[in-house]
Amino acid sequence: PELQFPERLNCAAELLDRHVREGRGDRLCIQAEGVRWSYADLQDRANRIASVLTGAMGLVPGNRVLLCGPNNPMLVACWFGVVKAGGIAVAAMPLLRAKELSTIADIAKISHALCDDAQRAEVLGAQQKSPALQSIRFFNVRAEGDDSLEALMAQASPHFDAVETAATDTCLLGFTSGTTGVPKATMHFHRDVMAICACWPQSILRAHADDVFVGSPPIAFTFGLGGQVLFPMSIGASMVLLEKAGPAQLADGIERFGATVVFTAPTSYRVMAQQGELIRSTPLRKCVSAGEALTASTRALWKDATGIEIIDGIGSTEMLHIFISHREEDTRPGATGKAVPGYHAKVVDEQGNEVPPGTVGRLAVLGPTGCRYLADSRQTQYVQHGWNLTGDAYLMDADGYFIYQARTDDMIISAGYNIAAPEVEDALMAHAAVAECAVIGVPDSERGQIVKAFVVLRSGHAGGEAMVKELQDFVKRTVAPYKYPRAIAFVDQLPRTATGKLQRFRLHSPA
Ligand code: 3UK
């Protein structure tokens, strides 16, 4: 990939203004419920927002701007307005409460906010706790006669030349999903945004300008920002934005808007597979999965239901986007794939030495993007000798495919055996009575740790001695018997982050 960038670079100018300048202003850029914007339409909105920010709102380059709301066209216009003005976009997961927004505002030293009206009360609540958050405007305001962003935009100039930021100026802060506790902010440069557009989409996805992108993750999650906004715009394609994108709404959105490329998580593919006929009737042709491991069974289920091979990729907030993946024609069930061109990956031991193929170790990656935590001492745990340690246990097979095992925290060592929690979970999930489950290691005086499973049963099934025995025997029949859960607890639900990731650490505490 071409990864030489000029010293002065504004990624919003590259992804948006370039299309208008080169005569593609009339091309479709965004569709949503009742909305159809061309690239010129989006540029008009973004310019007016940049004018409001730098005018009435007093923004100067480098200021951090909180963006709140569900995925919709105005949220995307705000993202481009902020970045064109040289500000730093800090998108918050939808539905966060005042307390969580205030934590983000404090960590990221946020001075301005542009928020969907739906989040008004929570953002104003956050301002009470974080007085540095001075200037707030609301968009998608339904009530008349107000302080809405749209009212200011109507008065503002539609012309705004993007600020000539340095390629190494920060343009976005991404918050980690908090699977291990307190969220961390990661800094990404204008150059990093252009780098992710030049790597995985070009060599793996290979979409074209007529593709219609859709997906479920919020743009506050860099998986969603890249897949649904940056990647289509980098090739002059279009995006469909869905405010609610559970599996049923996503399948419906694919059909109604004729989407051809979808980004979502494995759980969503499992549910949508029940609507295989509907999917087959649409022009959908590329399906991307990330966020958590794609099991061989989910891959097969989707392929059988729709005829489409899922493109699995592992990415992280720290690396900005996907760094190990494979093309549809080169899948190996159970493996994530190989390093994306532009990136290097290896499996290392505790000392950082590369281990031989077939050996489980920590995944280390190196590439044009990488981890920069904002003022957080955990930086030195993530980046060692220039390599990024993602916190995942992987092995590389003899042919160079990387095979996911577990989060390094989720390797259970019991009586000297290494047991990956997700493997036991897969085995349990195959039982008809199990709706969801999570497996952890708990301290045990005899074995060091034992395998403990938290199980959510499907309706119509009862927990109890007999079910415990039934599930234990079932696991022993499908995986090596030493991996069976010696303890099983039945629960109503499992703790998850806003992006749907299991928070295993919360299962370790009795609360
Ligand atoms: C896990 C996967 C196995 C893995 C993300 C694509 O998920 C993203 O970012 P997060 O910071 O989490 C990163 C962690 O999630 N993971 C993600 N994808 C896979 N595990 N197979 C996969 N395909 O533990 C990783 O360390 O929330 C994904 C693009 C951008 C992203 N931010």
**Attached small molecules:** 5'-O-[(S)-[(2-aminobenzoyl)oxy](hydroxy)phosphoryl]adenosine
> What overall form do the CA principal axes indicate?
globular
Strand content: 25-35%
Largest sheet: 9 strands, mixed
Number of strands: 25
Helical content (DSSP H or I, runs of 4+): 25-40%
Q: Which spans have pLDDT < 50 for at least 5 consecutive residues?
A: none
User: What is the radius of gyration?
Assistant: 23 Å
Euclidean distance between termini CA atoms: 49 Å
Query: Pairing-aware structural class of the strands and helices?
Result: alpha/beta
Count the DSSP helices: 17
In what order do the strands lie side by side in the largest sheet? 2-1-10-9-11-12-13-14-15
Mean pLDDT score: 93
What does this molecule look like?
The protein is α/β, with parallel strands linked by helices and 511 residues long. Helix content is 31%, strand content 25%. The protein has 17 helices and 25 strands. The protein has a nine-stranded mixed beta sheet, with helices on both faces. Strands 16, 17, 18, 19 and 20 form a five-stranded antiparallel beta sheet that branches. It is globular and about 70 Å long. 50% of the residues are buried. The model has no long low-confidence stretch (mean pLDDT 93). The chain binds 5'-O-[(S)-[(2-aminobenzoyl)oxy](hydroxy)phosphoryl]adenosine. 5'-O-[(S)-[(2-aminobenzoyl)oxy](hydroxy)phosphoryl]adenosine is lined by residues 176-177, 222-223, 290-294, 312-317, 321-322, 336, 390-392, 404, 407, 499.
